[in-house]
Amino acid sequence: MTNIKKILEKWASKERIQFQSQEAEQKYAERAERLADAIQLKIPDKIPLAPDAGLFPLTYSGISLREAMYNYDKICIALKKTITDFKWDAVPRVPVWPAKAFEVLKYKPLRLPGLGLDDDAPTYQFVEPGQKIEGKELYEPMKLEEYDWFLEDPSDFNLRGHLSQVCDALKPFANLPPINGITCYYHGYLDALATPDIDKAFEALAEAAREVRKWRMVMGQCLQDVKSMGFPEFFSALTHAPFDYIGDFRRGTRGILTDIFRNPEKVKAVCERVAPFMSEWGIRFAKLTGNPIVVFRLHKGIFMRPEQFEEFYWSTLKKVFLTLIKNDVIPYAYTEGDYRPYLEIIKEMPRGKIIYHIEQGIFEAKEVLGDKFCLTGGIPASLLYTASPQKVEEYCKKAIEVLGENGGFILDSDVPLDVVKPENLKAVNEAVLKYGHYS
Amino acid sequence: MKLSEIQDEYINALADLDETKVFELTEKKLNAGEDPLEILNDVKKAMDIVGKRFEDGWYFVADLMMAGEILNKLTDMLKPKLKKSNTSKLLGKVVIGTVKGDIHDIGKDIVITMFEANDFEVIDLGVDVHPDKFVEAIQKHQPKIVGMSALLTSAFGSMRETVKTIEEAGLRNQIKIIIGGGTIDEDTKEYVGADAYCRDPVAAINLAKKWMEGE
């Protein structure tokens, strides 16, 4: 437990934050301690409330996704307004990415307002490999026979096979020679780059990266601003379960789920192959952002029988978790869907070293996992969307009493929010105020 | 081996999702001159077992998906060999789609396969389907059941709007509406104005069959 304490002390540190006021500084400390206590399975002063607010800050502030994805200041305006009004215990991540970067790359998996979607669409959409939109496949999944290419040399496959497939602007990369023969002696590898097509592709890549840098500068400053207002950041970086990495971005759901029947050994081999990369991403980005809590959005495990889950999904995911833990990172496993069949399996992790978000069946999860891990969740987004504030408050009372028992719990929505009723989120605050105190 | 044993072996191979064996046996049956309709009847029995195993919590979505893959391949293989008059009776028509603003289709596609395996004719409108498209399809195909799918909570509003549009077109009373997907629950059903919500494909099939029997 000691190193978790140290990690969280560093996470809660107020160093390098220029607080707006003494009150803000005090609130920051209180909030950070509240969250840190819950993560360490201790009983905080009151139930921490940290909704994964998704795109709600935009809808709440009357800013369209289309505006925000080009004008990053708008993301920050929305975030500041939301956090000022709701005063949650942590700043949520607003998942708005720099549209121009994706536009320049002609990145096919992401559909955005005005870029595949109506201008006023409230959310973005991720299109899976091989998924059909209006009867047409937007881009091809990694082919079955390409498993071997991936296994042999993942970087080569990613550069020449994958990027050229998902980004129209990077199509010319398919014609590059393999990079593992690179030399710059005389003109060496450069010869292969000396075509107008390749030149344009690299230019697109550089332009996209410049745009991401712009976005990151604005978002970085914004985070400093909201911290200075007294709000800590819960988690920041993201990495993936190896099975999801292959399923989400290479083979698609149908592809990988039928592969576990038809080509089980390939699936296992490829997950083993990417596990160290997933760990490295997590550790690297935790260092880069200075936030040791790294989130995993767990997607495709829930489609499998428990024994398949263990064999294909968990076997490599747990390696990634353990590697992160060894490197002073706290994995935040955000389970999506119904994890009740797998609770005993995921219980295997070392006590207090990982945080589990539970989307469905959180009351059962509390019984199975509650004394071993900090859990987050508890408020159904559908309730926030459809019910009355009174009903929301009643529900939250129960959630607080049952799920909050003995600490180790952070109140959160079951899924990231988008267009829920603000008065229902106010009702959540009311419930925490009325029933959330431990002492 | 007796005929009934061969039949059992076939049904079991399919229920166990043993793709290789299923196709070997199908070839054998066809070569021996077995009526494709008989084979399809066995396929249906096997799909019932798959559905039962799902209900019992033994099979999961991946199993349904794999069963669907095998089923589609079998249907493609056997359908052209069926005599026109020799097809089984349809239970009813279903119009189905993922509503506007959402493109998630895993659940929807499995539901479609299950409906088809249970003698429903399905008109798949695809994903991100505008309310007007639902109305047009209802007018054109006259289904008894309309299925709407969405994973995103932001699409709840879109479901509600779709139901409203169907109402305004004067078609609401001639159909039953089932919704499903992701976090959908009783509250969502009320909000949307649907007749039922289903947590999984098997529940949807069972309900649809019940409705059809009630006709």
Description:
The complex is a heterodimer of chains A (439) and B (215). Chain A has 439 residues and is of the alpha/beta class. Chain A has one domain (2-97, 215-435): TIM Barrel (Alpha-Beta Barrel), CATH 3.20.20.210. Chain A contains 18 helices and 11 strands. In chain A, helix 14 links the parallel strand 8 (330-335) and strand 9. In chain A, helix 7 packs across helix 12 and helix 17 crosses helix 18. The two termini of chain A are 24 Å apart. Chain B is an alpha/beta fold and 215 residues long. Chain B folds into 2 domains: 3-84, Methyltransferase, Methionine Synthase (B12-binding Domains), Chain A, domain 1 (Orthogonal Bundle), CATH 1.10.1240; 92-213, Rossmann fold, CATH 3.40.50.280. Chain B has 9 helices and 5 strands; from the N terminus they run H-H-H-H-E-H-E-H-E-H-E-H-E-H. Chain B has a 5-stranded parallel beta sheet with strand order 2-1-3-4-5, with helices on both faces. The longest helix of chain B has 20 residues, at 36-55. Classes of the chains: A alpha/beta (439), B alpha/beta (215).
Describe the secondary-structure layout.
The complex is a heterodimer of chains A (439) and B (215).
Chain A lengths: L1 H10 L10 H18 L16 H6 L3 H6 L1 H15 L12 H7 L4 E4 L2 E2 L7 E2 L5 E2 L2 E2 L8 H7 L1 H13 L23 H4 L2 H33 L9 E2 L2 H21 L1 H26 L3 E6 L7 H21 L3 E6 L7 H4 L8 E4 L3 H8 L4 E6 L1 H6 L2 H15 L5 E5 L8 H14 L4
Parallel strand pairs in A: 1-2, 6-7, 7-8, 8-9, 9-10, 10-11
Antiparallel strand pairs in A: 1-3, 4-5
Helix pairs in contact in A: 5-10, 6-10, 7-8, 7-12, 11-12, 11-13, 12-13, 17-18
Chain B lengths: L2 H13 L3 H13 L4 H20 L5 H18 L13 E7 L7 H12 L2 E5 L6 H11 L3 E5 L6 H13 L7 E5 L5 H7 L3 E3 L2 H13 L2
Parallel strand pairs in B: 1-2, 1-3, 3-4, 4-5
Helix pairs in contact in B: 1-3, 3-4, 4-5, 5-9, 6-7
Order of neighbouring strands in the sheet with most strands of chain A: 6-7-8-9-10-11
**Structural domains of chain B: how many:** 2
Kindly report the oligomeric state of this protein: heterodimer
Strand portion of chain A: 5-15%
Q: Helices and strands of chain B, in N-to-C order? A: HHHHEHEHEHEHEH
Strand content of chain B: 5-15%
